[in-house]
Recover the amino acids of this structure.
């Protein structure tokens, strides 16, 4: 069976959709690749997607802006995802710290695993890092970020595990390989896992070990889940069987329109999704028009124009 060779997307909760959109497109320079209604509460919430030109798996960050719902602020902590890394080229750290200063974005620079990581948060406090490294993704050229410095998809996700051994076990069940901490003395309280094979796209999970830290609280400014790549429904079923044989409870398949998904909650507290790569964002819009129109799944029988009037305003470039 083909291996799980990296991350497909991550999903988080925001407050205002406009602020979220402005940050990811105008500050980070990502492409807005899709705007749908949230399938279970279409009249209240958007589902917004950012990524590279096509929304290639391994570049996609998605948000539920919760303005119209009763969701309080979350707190990033133990038992959940605690950061997402995005790839920038080796020589681009000064460009990005300068850009963050110009946009009033606070940041911290750290060295670890022979990489430079520039940590920052989105406007709602959700943590990200720009990490220097390699990627097979081309930057989106439709923003004012010069292509030589542009973000090249995802690098990693960090899980602040409530049960580090449990998180190691599930990653190993998925076929991921551990890079020992001893080999990387500067890595401190994190253990790195890499996807098998020679992909260089979104193929890293760092497990953060801080047992005395406070538990995270899900809400605005926190991540909901990380999705890993599987090629199609057959592979997803095979992986679901493997996970079940190892004691993990997988959900039934959910139709997400642009991919098909199953989920587990791993022992460390994070939600892992297994999303197929064989559909994509061009099923209902041409590549050069991605994100321009509000979309809904075919099975959802609602009047999209009426729904659009009920949703918060969202001005796109
Ligand atoms: Zn997802």
């Amino acid at each position: 069976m083909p291996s799980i060779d990296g991350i497909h997307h991550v999903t988080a909760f925001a407050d205002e959709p406009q602020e979220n959109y402005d940050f990811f497109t105008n500050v980070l320079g990502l492409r807005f690749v899709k705007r749908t209604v949230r399938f279970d509460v279409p009249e209240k919430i958007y589902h917004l997607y950012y990524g590279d030109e096509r929304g290639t798996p391994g570049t996609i960050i998605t948000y539920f802006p919760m303005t119209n719902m009763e969701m309080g602020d979350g707190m990033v902590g133990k038992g959940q995802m605690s950061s997402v890394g995005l790839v920038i080229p080796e020589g681009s750290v000064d460009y990005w710290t300068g850009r963050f200063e110009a946009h009033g974005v606070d940041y911290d620079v750290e060295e670890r695993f022979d990489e430079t990581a520039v940590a920052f948060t989105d406007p709602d406090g959700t943590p990200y890092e720009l990490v220097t490294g390699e990627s097979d993704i081309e930057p989106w050229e439709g923003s004012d970020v010069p292509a030589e410095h542009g973000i090249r998809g995802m690098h990693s996700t960090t899980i602040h595990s409530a049960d580090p051994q449990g998180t190691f076990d599930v990653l190993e069940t998925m076929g991921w390989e551990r890079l020992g901490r001893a080999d990387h003395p500067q890595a401190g309280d994190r253990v790195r896992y890499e996807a098998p094979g020679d992909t260089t796209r979104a193929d890293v999970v760092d497990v953060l070990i801080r047992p005395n830290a406070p538990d995270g609280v899900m809400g605005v400014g926190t991540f909901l889940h990380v999705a890993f790549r599987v090629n199609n429904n057959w592979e997803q079923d095979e992986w679901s069987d493997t996970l079940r044989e190892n004691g993990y409870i997988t959900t039934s398949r959910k139709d997400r329109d642009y991919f098909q998904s199953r989920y587990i909650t791993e022992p460390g507290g994070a939600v892992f999704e297994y999303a197929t790569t064989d559909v994509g964002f061009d099923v209902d819009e041409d590549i050069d028009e991605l994100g321009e129109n509000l979309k809904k799944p075919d099975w959802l029988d609602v009047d999209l124009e009426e729904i659009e009037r009920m949703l918060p305003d969202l001005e796109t470039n």
About this structure: Residues 9, 11, 225, 227, 273 surround zinc ion (CB under 6 Å). The longest helix spans residues 233-245. The domain at 7-295 is CATH 3.10.180.10 (2,3-Dihydroxybiphenyl 1,2-Dioxygenase; domain 1).
